[in-house]
Structures are given as structure tokens and as C-alpha cells.
């Protein structure tokens, strides 16, 4: 039987720059985000399947119509503000990554702080929304909101809402913690000593993923 000996120094890629010539940590971040996308996808598919297999469903315009300090009668206004805050935080994260590419420590620090503030503001809004819904009688296993046609709704609505938005909120909280760690490392010149800000770029990938997932959650729960 013929045998082939492979030298450890053999280069198998002959098409110019390798498409996989990516830093190891960034590849691992992409793998993590893909696995997390499958988890969110499973949640949303289960939600969509249950919703469209159910005859009636609460109208989001009636459920989410309250605004802090203004009371009821403002359909989807508060969640629109939450979405705006998260999108702006994504913009500041882009600016932080861009500053990192330019080895601009002050720019990284400034935009990371704004991103952290945006994340905390979003979490505060979500905490208010959850508290408000709880005082209206909504929670896992409890649904005080009738279907849009006036019939009694199941608890599927609140069960999916608190589970999926809670899971997303946990990701936002994780992103805030990661960004705080990145901020501390930046202030301590960790990346200046390494000669690059790749960690900021990886944190940015995670933050953009969290923002992108919210777009799907927002569309499924609040718009459809």
C-alpha cells in the first residue's frame, strides 16, 4: 500500500491570501455568535409556530402602550425609545472599534463609556417595562391581556415574552460587563502595550450581535 508523508511545513493554500487568515479569538467569537444565533432562532421559531397555531393573540398596541410619566395611550412609543437607544449604542461601539484601529485610546474610552451608558439605559427601560407588566398582572403563567378579538388568551403570550426578552436582556447585561472590562483594560494601557485593540473589535462583534437580535425580537413581539 502506498503511503504519503506530509511535511509539517506544507502550505496547502495556493490561492493567494487565505480566506481563513483571521485571528484565533475572532474566529472563536464568530463560532460563539453562530451557536447563540441558533438558540435565539429556536426561541423565535417556537414562538412563531405557537402564535400562528393559536386562534387568538393579544394586540401589542394595547399591551405595550404605556410610557413612564405619561401613562397609557402611547402604543409602542416606549419600546421604540428602547430600540433607538440600543441602535445608538451600536453606533458608538462602531466608533470605539474605529478608534481602536487608529490606536486612539481617548476615542476608545469615550465611545466605550457611551456604549456602556446606552446598554445600562436599555436595561433600565426593560426593567421598567417588566415591572409595569408585572403590576398589571402579567408574569410567567399569568396573562391578564385578552386576545385582539376579546376572547380569553392563553399564557403563551407572557411565557414567550418574558423568556425571550429576559434571555436577550441577559445578553445585554453580559455585553455591558464585557465593555466595562474592556474600558478598564484600555485605561490600564493593556492594548497599548500589545500594540493593537483586537479585543475591542471582538467585544464590538458581540455587541452588534445583541443589537441585531433585538431587531428580530422587536419585530416578532411588538410589530407583528
Automatic annotation (TrEMBL):
Localization, UniProt: Cell membrane
Classification via Gene3D superfamilies: Cytochrome c oxidase, subunit III, four-helix bundle
Pfam families linked: COX3
Topology within the bilayer: Multi-pass membrane protein
PROSITE patterns reported for this sequence: COX3
Ranges for domain Heme-copper oxidase subunit III family profile: 1-224
Single GO term (MF): cytochrome-c oxidase activity
Gene Ontology BP annotations: aerobic electron transport chain
Predominant location category: membrane
Cellular component GO terms, alphabetical: plasma membrane
InterPro entries reported for this sequence: Cyt_c/ubiquinol_Oxase_su3, Cyt_c_oxidase-like_su3, Cyt_c_oxidase_su3-like_sf, Cyt_c_oxidase_su3_a-hlx
UniProt keyword list: Cell membrane, Membrane, Transmembrane, Transmembrane helix
Membrane spanning residue stretches: 27-47, 67-100, 112-130, 160-184, 205-223
UniProt similarity note: Belongs to the cytochrome c oxidase subunit 3 family.
Protein name stated in the entry: Cytochrome oxidase subunit III
Amino acid at each position: 500500500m502506498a503511503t504519503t508523508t506530509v511535511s509539517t511545513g506544507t502550505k496547502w493554500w495556493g490561492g493567494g491570501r487565505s480566506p481563513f487568515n483571521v485571528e484565533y479569538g475572532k474566529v472563536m467569537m464568530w463560532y460563539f455568535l453562530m451557536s447563540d444565533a441558533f438558540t435565539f432562532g429556536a426561541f423565535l421559531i417556537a414562538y412563531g409556530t405557537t402564535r400562528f397555531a393559536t386562534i387568538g393573540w393579544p394586540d401589542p398596541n394595547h399591551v405595550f402602550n404605556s410610557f413612564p410619566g405619561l401613562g397609557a395611550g402611547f402604543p409602542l412609543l416606549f419600546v421604540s425609545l428602547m430600540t433607538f437607544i440600543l441602535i445608538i449604542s451600536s453606533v458608538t461601539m462602531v466608533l470605539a472599534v474605529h478608534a481602536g484601529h487608529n490606536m486612539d485610546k481617548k476615542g476608545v474610552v469615550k465611545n466605550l463609556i457611551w456604549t456602556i451608558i446606552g446598554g445600562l439605559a436599555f436595561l433600565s427601560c426593560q426593567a421598567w417595562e417588566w415591572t409595569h407588566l408585572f403590576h398589571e398582572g402579567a408574569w410567567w403563567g399569568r396573562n391578564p391581556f385578552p386576545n385582539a378579538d376579546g376572547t380569553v388568551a392563553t399564557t403563551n403570550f407572557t411565557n414567550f415574552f418574558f423568556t425571550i426578552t429576559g434571555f436577550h436582556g441577559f445578553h445585554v447585561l453580559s455585553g455591558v460587563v464585557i465593555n466595562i472590562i474592556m474600558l478598564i483594560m484600555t485605561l490600564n494601557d493593556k492594548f497599548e502595550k500589545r500594540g493593537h485593540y483586537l479585543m475591542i473589535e471582538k467585544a464590538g462583534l458581540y455587541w452588534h450581535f445583541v443589537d441585531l437580535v433585538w431587531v428580530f425580537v422587536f419585530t416578532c413581539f411588538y410589530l407583528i
